[in-house]
Amino acid sequence: MINLDEIKSNKYISLETYRKNGQPVQTPVWFVIKENLIYVVTRNKTGKVKRLKNNPQVKFALCTMRGNITGEWISGTVKILDQTQTNEAVKMRDKKYGFIAKIAKFLSKSKGEFFAFTIMIN
Q1: Does the 4-121 domain belong in CATH 2.40.10.10?
Q2: pLDDT tens figures, 28-68
Q3: Pairing mode of beta strands 37-43, 32-34
Q4: Is 0.85 topped by the overall pTM?
């Protein structure tokens, strides 16, 4: 079993979500860990959100900014957060990523509203 504290200081995980036909799609994402859950913040008009709504099963692995895998793949289940929890996740993400998170917020506005979810290891 992976100890999430060991990956907490890393910047990226590759999130593998699945299309309706089962084809996997890998996306590097920022993450925050709190109370043994992985929190991810994105925007609601992204492809990964559509895929997660169809299938909450995911895999993730540590990776580089470009998505090159540097760790073991781990299976998990996604839980979509409500607005209050999403606001809290955005605050945690902004604290971890600082100024870069502010730039990302601005650049990603066209992708819709904030959308957050947790990943629980299976």
Answers
A1: no
A2: 999 999 999 999 999 999 999 999 999 999 999 999 999 99
A3: antiparallel
A4: yes
